[in-house]
Specification:
Layout: H1 8-29, H2 36-48
Helix pairs in contact: 1-2
Length: 61
């Protein structure tokens, strides 16, 4: 699955959304996630693909 962004601003906005979603994920599971880069990358790919459940199927800690 290819994930691309049209501008640096689009990429930065996607990163911000992923980080916020990941913060909520960590609160839900009650622990830090050392694999946060993988989680955020999957979230961003899912989000761009139109998956409304982005983050729910992302890798867990």
């Amino acid at each position: 699955m290819a994930t691309t962004y049209n501008t640096v601003a689009d990429l930065a906005a996607a990163l911000r959304r992923a980080v916020e979603a990941h913060h909520l994920h960590e609160q839900e599971v009650g622990q830090d996630d050392p694999d946060w880069p993988d989680w955020c990358a999957q979230y961003m790919a899912d989000e761009q693909a139109g998956n409304r459940d982005a983050g729910r199927a992302a890798p867990d800690a």
